[in-house]
Here is the input.
Amino acid sequence: MASQSQLTCNFTITSPLNVAIVFQSDLDGNFGGTFTGGTGTGGPVSTSLWDSDGNVFFTLVDSESPDLACIINSGANPSTWAPFVEVGTEAGLTCNLSGPVQAGPDTYDYTLEVTRSAQPRAAEAEAATSEPTTSPQ
Here is the structure.
């Protein structure tokens, strides 16, 4: 379902990590929208949708540990043309999404705070997964 206007979502990325931004389009180049902004480190990132049931996906990656990542889905609600933005898969990173803040007609601002997920220390992790023991009486 095409829309007469364009929905823009702007993302500011904050993190103590060196976060890289990865965008890969489908074979046709889009899912009813476009991605703008720097791939590589930093940000900001913007997505623009011209199709009310379109989506743009991008991935935030820890540059020092590329297997740590989270996927962001920027889309629109087809019936209202309101933004629909969510954090998808998180793998070793925690991505907290704040917003939206309306910045103009059909333009919304978000903040993504990216941190490494808490990892239990090895001894605590082992204790949590081991069988409980009982003392002989």
